[in-house]
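User: OFA family MFS transporter, Hymenobacter tibetensis:
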Amino acid sequence: MAESSLLDRSRTVAGPGYNRWLVPPAALAIHLAIGQAYAFSVFKKPLGALLSGNPDAPGPDDWTPGQLGIIFSIAIVLLGLSAAVFGKWLERVGPRKAMMASALCFGGGFFIAALGVHLHSIWLMYFGYGFVGGIGLGIGYISPVSTLIKWFPDRRGVATGMAIMGFGGGAMIGSPLAVALMDRFKDVAPLGVAPTFIAMGVIYLLFMQFGVWTIRVPADDWKPAGYVPSTEHNALITTGNVTADNAIKTPQFWLLWVVLCMNVTAGIGVLETASPLIQETFSDTAMGAGKGVTAAAAAGFVGLLSLFNLLGRFFWSSASDKMGRKTTYAIYFGLGILLYALVPTLGASASLTLFVVVSCVILSMYGGGFATIPAYLSDLFGKMQVGAIHGRLLTAWSTAGVLGPVIVNYLHTNAKAKGLVGAAAYQSVFYTMAGVLVIGLIANFLVRPVAEKYFEKETAKKVAA
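Assistant: Predicted structure for OFA family MFS transporter:
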């Protein structure tokens, strides 16, 4: 039999005395890279002016904003689909091979997109950054989750929060990097876009190798020193294991699918409109001549939201270790309903400071929802195939990634058609999103312990009654 590959799971099993705190940096290396997807908007104007060369006055043959928006949508849809399709494969082959596949797809997506830019082929852009890159996103997103939960059974929320925090922060690296590279290459190619894609493909492919070659999995019988499984919260924390195939047969899986979908749909409602929202709501008309929010200030607002999206992923998921996942999601939805319903009032009363504070809290809970869901799944279904189960649940993200923007754009466009302006044009958006969170609150309330019949036979007897 041929010698096993360096990428095989057997080559990643940690030896005795291995420090588990070396694993989160490996996960972060992957998530900080693929989190660049959140910064795709920095390419929109340059990509829409490749032929004319003037981002402020695109020509008739340039790509339209609608065409370019499809690229990101494809990437997010493929993120969820690939996570669902490759989840069981990941559990079988281990995180190293999955991380390498993610790096090759994510980096390769940039290379194909660069060719699409050079040939001015929107279909190559769809295939490269959208399809191939999206597969890299999905595999990379779930690749460290199961491993982290196995290393940190005592701090599942902290562990997943550390990794998924990186995805939220990826844009904080990717955005300035892209801008700097396009400026550097602007004399080499139209607006410097094609060489920037090539450079970023190489940079991210190499950066992700740190995660590929430093990731380790614990031995099957490993436990943290002094670790005793906790029954502090309630029977929602199981000691058994449910396979991915059985998990999707349970009502708990689909309730959590609704929970994630509603949380993401509402959060995207703010992210999708953040810059025009604050400029239109707090314009010179509302605030007084010369006192309205400028485009530069709006960009700062978007950056602030990204920061709270990042911080919320670690803060809320870590807090869930103490409060319990169900309670944490009840806070996301209960507090979220009040804050979303409050936003139109703050806009109408021109309360800019409170508006910014409320928006930041909302985005922190949006990020927290992503980071807390793997631990919630592990509590309910066990850690054996939690990566595969998480992968299937991420189809909720794909759905929300389409649903959220469609709802927001429809409601806002309809409001403007009625002659509403400023804060009034966004009232229906935020009231609708508050209603969306009500659905999530009900779904979370209905979550109960998984029935014993779904557990693997060797562990069914261990399941909390």
